[in-house]
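Morning run. Coffee first, then this:
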Amino acid sequence: MASPPGSVSQLLIDGLSIVLIDLVLAGDNALVIAMAVRALPPRQRLVATGYGAAAAVVLRVAITIVAARLLNIEFLKLVGGALVVWIAVKVLADCDSPPGAAPARGTLLQAIWLIVVADITMSIDNVLAVAGAARGNTWLIVFGLCVSIPFVVFSSNLIAMLMDRYPVIIYLGAIILGRVGAEMVMTDPFVSRVVHPSSLLVWLIEACTIVGILIAGKLLARKATCKV
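And here it is:
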């Protein structure tokens, strides 16, 4: 027996909605992936982003199903925000270091691990929108997330290549990740319950985090230079 036309059209609409949500919300994730793989040789970047994004999608499907509960877990977003800030500082320090003092190329597994952890922790809020659009249909969730993989892989590798050519993009990326990381920390359930941050306080913390990232990156690069 064929499915009613209304249900088929609704399924298509829901599927398209999930794809659009994934693409719109993938910007920050693509940026943090690009920052994570920048230390890899160009040929390994595609491998790292592909495996990292695929692993993150598998975990994100599970997260989407229980997203409402995960949002109430204390310290999860706090740790994730701290990781995002650390990635920004590390990449900024590597960028400022002269060629002879730059750290050794990052390992493939390390980059994949950073991609998975950062992507998952950054996506906890986003998956609620996907879960709502899917109306409880797990296959729609899987479909939408899988469609978003090529976009994330392509955009993150493009950003990484642009960073190689125009180093100023690294500073812009560090600033964006500083804001994202600070926002994640300040919206963690534990922080919200204890501090009750106002919008002004969140803005101030974001600004201080960005300044701290820029200063820490400079200091670490200078320290590496002195060791040479």
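The CA atoms of residues 54 and 228 lie 39 Å apart. Good start to the day.
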